[in-house]
Amino acid sequence: MGSGSRASVVKIAAGTYHSLALKTDGSVVAWGNNDYGQTTVPTGAQSGVVSIAAGGNNSLALKTDGSVVAWGNNGSGQTTVPTGAQSGVVSIAAGGYHSLALKTDGSVVAWGANSWGQTTVPTGAQSGVVAIAAGGYHSLALKSDGSVVTWGNNGYGQTTVPTGAQSGVVAIAAGWFRSLALKSDGSVVAWGDNRYGQTTVPTGAQSGVVAIAAGGDHSLALKSDGSVVAWGKNDYGQTTVPTGAQSGVAAIAAGEDHSLALKTDGSVVAWGNNGYGQMNVPANIASPVKAIRIAGGGTHSLALKTDGSVVAWGNNGSGQTTAPTGAQSGVVAIAAGSNHSMALKTDGSVVAWGYNVYGQTTVPTGAQSGVVAISAGGGHS
């Protein structure tokens, strides 16, 4: 690497079988499955990235100009960023096969797979939204009043918001068939698929929680003391928190069956399934630029660096870790779906890449500017 100033990781993201890291210099590092190009970071995500997201097999990077860069699987259009997400975006999210972008005006732009209505944004999410999340086939929006709006597949009750999540919510997360909400009192509410205990919140996550993440069938909670609590499916050890993630953690991300933790020193700890190298954190992850955000897709991971670039790694079967030029700089937020990725740029635009069979990377006109947040579901945005 060059002799420029040292930078470390500031954000991380986990896709189905790939991982992303955002460094302090705004560049993105990606690793893991690259069958769809999801870990091949495009020029646009090599600088100026401020946030990242990892979907099933795609990656997203949000640039400082508010635009989004997407790469990886585009089978559902999840990496074809629509006009509405090409500027004014403040946050991004990547689901299984769809992508989401939150605009500066509080509206949501969605694209990609829509088989369950996951990209058909309801009236309640067209204004006043402050955060977004994308699951396998459903989407979530957190409103400024602390309420949650959901749409898409409800086969496991994942879009039926329980009483406990109808007010006082400060953060949201979505897995394949479940939803999570972090309350202002530090407790976690979970609903939807519970076949592996992923919505049965353990005692350790009932207070003192400051951040949440939802993987395929497992959940993570970051505590105020810097420790991580994990529950749900553990067939690959994805909920067996290693020593390195038991303290000093600043951010968390969950993929299909792997987990990531960003430490306060800018290093990344990974555990769980490593079938596609999604846990093989690149040696340059903490240098020369720090990652500031992370996101986990189905089998890939994303990291947003302080220089606004996106790093992606893991499964690249749909190009979800091959960050396009638009996600190599100016990114402020990221999201990862099952096989696609998203990036929100500083200008409020959205870049999406990866699997696009359902149009989840084809950013619609409404998400090409003025977007303030993004989210990616299994096959929609």
Automatic annotation (TrEMBL):
Gene3D superfamilies: Regulator of chromosome condensation 1/beta-lactamase-inhibitor protein II
The entry's keywords: Repeat
The keyword Repeat belongs to this UniProt entry's keyword annotation: yes
SUPFAM superfamilies: RCC1/BLIP-II (SSF50985)
Ranges where the RCC1-like domain occurs: 7-240
Name of a matching Pfam family: RCC1_2
Matching InterPro entries: RCC1-like_dom (IPR058923), RCC1/BLIP-II (IPR009091), Reg_chr_condens (IPR000408), Ub-ligase/GTPase-reg (IPR051709)
Residue ranges of coiled coil: none
PANTHER family membership: REGULATOR OF CHROMOSOME CONDENSATION DOMAIN-CONTAINING PROTEIN (PTHR45622:SF58), UBIQUITIN-PROTEIN LIGASE E3A-RELATED (PTHR45622)
The protein's name in its UniProt record: RCC1 repeat-containing protein
Native source species: Cohnella nanjingensis
Species lineage: Bacteria, Bacillati, Bacillota, Bacilli, Bacillales
